[in-house]
Design a protein that fits this description.
Blueprint (H helix, E strand, L loop, with lengths): L6 E3 L10 E6 L8 E6 L2 E2 L15 E4 L4 E4 L8 E8 L6 E2 L3 E3 L1
Antiparallel strand pairs: 1-2, 2-6, 3-4, 3-7, 5-6, 7-8, 7-9
């Protein structure tokens, strides 16, 4: 079963230096989909240190649970976030975009 449209849970505001948790959920897909996160339209790599665009960020990303945890969150993490659910059936589905300040 292809995934349906995932739901992104993004805090609208986060305190710099604190922990911020973003969650992506999708109920229909079988096999269960894996999740990707995007900031301002750019995919977040699994390891922020692997990408010049994200090396200032400190986060962990679990593609299986859909959790993106900033620990700590920084001012440069402000942006528009959306997630994408995909399995090997059908095409990937994107969530709505949410802004985190």
């Amino acid at each position: 079963v292809p995934p349906g449209k995932p739901v992104a849970h993004v805090p609208s505001s986060a305190t710099v230096g604190a922990r911020a948790v973003l969650r992506c959920s999708e109920e229909q897909g079988s096999p269960p989909p894996t999740f990707r996160w995007y900031k301002d339209g750019t995919e977040l790599p699994r390891d922020p240190k692997s990408s010049p665009a994200f090396r200032n960020s400190s986060y962990s990303l679990d593609p299986t649970s859909g959790e993106l945890v900033f620990e700590p969150v920084g001012g440069w993490d402000t942006g528009d976030y959306h997630c994408e659910a995909s399995n090997n059936v059908g095409s990937p589905q994107k969530s709505d975009v949410f802004r985190m300040e």
